[in-house]
Amino acid sequence: MLTCVGIGTFTGSVFLIVLLFVAGDITDVVSSKAGPLLQILLHATQNTAGAICLLMLPLVCLVFATLSVMTTSSRMIFAFARDGGLPASRFFAHVHQRLGLPLNALALTTLVVIIFGLIFLGSSRIPN
């Protein structure tokens, strides 16, 4: 596990250093309607299709990271509820028979994520 953190820190640092070298004009990057990462990739490749293909790599990593975080969070809620540590513990400790996963705990995790997402989208006054 410690090796994974070290490798992630190293590769992330290399990625950020490369992005900083090819960023171009920082005001163009910050004010871009396409988003800063896509603007940096457009500036570096001078090709829209290439920039979009390169943008897919971190997006795929983001999707897989989101899946693993949702899985971990729902399993932690399930284990905490199974041990009687939550209100409505019997409800959240239930494992779906056919799917074999704690569906109620996953629904709670999804609901919390949606609520935080709505706060982020709904108010520009709340610092993110």
Characterize this entry briefly:
With 128 residues, this protein is an all-alpha fold. It has helices at 2-22, 26-30, 36-45, 48-82, 89-92, 103-122.
**What is the helix tally?**
6
Q: Poorly predicted ranges (pLDDT <50, ≥5 residues)?
A: none
SSE series: HHHHHH
Mean pLDDT score, rounded?
A: 89
Give the number of domains: 2
The percent range for helix content is over 70%
Structural class: mainly alpha
Kindly estimate the percentage of residues that lie in beta strands according to DSSP. Answer: under 5%
End-to-end C-alpha gap: 29 Å
Q: What shape does the CA trace take? A: elongated
Q: How many beta-strand elements? A: 0
Rg: 20 Å
- How many strands, what sense, and barrel or not for the largest sheet? none
InterPro entries: AA/rel_permease1
Keywords: Membrane, Transmembrane, Transmembrane helix, Transport
Pfam family, one: AA_permease_2
Main location: membrane
